[in-house]
Structure formats: C-alpha cells, structure tokens
Amino acid sequence: MFNLKYVLLLALISYTLQDIHCLATVEYCEEEEDDGKDDYDGGGITHCEYAEGGSCYNCEDGYAASYDRKSCISFQNCNYMEEGNKKCSQCQSYYYPNSEGQCERTLCDNHDDNGMCTHCYSGYYLKNKECIKITIPYCKEVDEKDDTKCIRCVSTLAKPVDGKCIAPTTWIEGCEEYDTNGKCISCYEEDYYTKSGDTCKFISSCPKGTTYIKSCDVCEAGFTDDDDGWCIGHDGTKDTSGNSATGIKIDFAWLVLILAILI
C-alpha cells in the first residue's frame, strides 16, 4: 500500500504539471463593452459575421465564404473556398490545404508557391524541410546557421546571452521586462501595476465601468494565448485544466486534497 500511494502521487503530480503551459499571468481592468451585436453585419447571409456590398468576407467558425462570397459553406478551419466550392483556397492560421483541399494543421507559417515550407511558427525551426521543436528553454527562434543558439526568447525576457535565454527564478506577475540576470526591471505600469522592489503590485480594485480579468501573459515557447486566456500550442495542444491563469490554483487544490487522503 505504501508503494501504491507514492505511485499514485507521482502520477498525479505528472498529470498536474503537464497541463499548464503558462509561465506568468497578468491582471488588468477591461472596459465594459456591449455584446457587439450592434457591430454585427452579416448582410443577411446565413452564418456570415461580416459582409460588405452583398459579399461575405468573414463567416462563423466552422464555415467558409463561398468562391463568389455570396454564402457561407460548412467547412472546418477554412476562410475562403476555391471555385467550385469543393476545396479550400485559404485556411485559417495554423492550417494549410492538403492535396484534397482539406485544411490540415501545420507547424509552418509560410509556404512558397510550390507548397514547400520556408519558415516555421515560433518555438520551431526548419530542418530538412520539417518543422522541429526548439529544445532550448524559453527560446522562440534559433539562428538559421546554428540551431544550438537562440536569437529570440519568449516575450518579457531579455535578448539571449551566448545563445541562451535567461529566465527568472520566479516569474513575477505583471512584469513587463526582465534583464539579462533574470531580474524584473519594469512592470505594466500603464496597465494598473506599480513597481515595488523586485515585484509588481496590482492596484487594489478596478475602476467603475471596468471588469477585473486575470489571464496568461507569457506562454511557453511554441504556445500562444488565445481569446480565452488559455495557452494553446501551435501543434494544437491546449491547457485542459481551465483558464491558464487559474488552472494552476485549481490543480494545486486538488493535489492538496488527494495528498491529505493518501497520507
């Protein structure tokens, strides 16, 4: 039973850690807005979100604008259809049309006229015509001539030193910039933060007419924050513990509870 407890504990810790891809969170006050319905103009075209001059240029998610832009056709991950409306001519970000015109997820953010990849999404680099994940911690882009050296780190970190990214021992919430020693040197002061020693202090409360929000500020290399504040990978990986800003707290609470039961 003793060994079983530790096996379960290790499995739980592993599960908890693998779901979170947010390195640092940020708090801010967002001005309250209406539901956006007044700005919605689909031009009377079903499933269209934006139309102009009788033509649809932006359909709802899961739909693509037809070749003549007069309708929205059910088609996953596609923006616009080819003539005949059987194949996609332009896929959404992180997707690229295959030989059958279906949009497949890709790690390549730029293709040449022959469909060959010329550049990968951040956190990956091109090697032998394939996008390979960068293994240098916190690195988003490596030197084209030497893939062991980083030339761009995740946002808020300083420029690489000797090809490596210098990260803080503890990520500071609300920190806008770190120096080459991993020390926070500036906060999002215009976004309701003030510098307090080596940390950033958030205002006590949000002004009237604004809403308090906490979301991810810095995602791991190879990930980006989406509209919900989660970190989503260029390969489709996504935080599964809820919002990145709160997922760590939720998982930790469960960990403490189960630890108490086991011990």
Question: Which keywords apply here?
Answer:
mainly beta, two-stranded antiparallel ribbon, 2 helices
Descriptive report:
Helix 1 (2-18) packs antiparallel against helix 2 (244-262). By secondary structure, the chain is mainly beta. Helices cover 14% and strands 38% of the residues. Strands 1-20 form a two-stranded antiparallel sheet. Strands 2-3 form a two-stranded antiparallel ribbon. The termini are close together. Mean pLDDT is 84; it is low at 6-19 and 241-260. The chain contains two helices and 22 strands. Strand 16 (175-178) and strand 17 form a beta hairpin.
Short account of what is shown:
This protein has helices spanning 2-18, 244-262, and strands spanning 22-31, 48-52, 55-59, 63-65, 72-74, 78-81, 88-91, 95-97, 103-105, 108-111, 117-120, 124-127, 130-133, 139-143, 146-153, 175-178, 184-187, 193-196, 199-202, 210-219, 223-225, 231-233. The protein has 263 residues and is mainly beta.
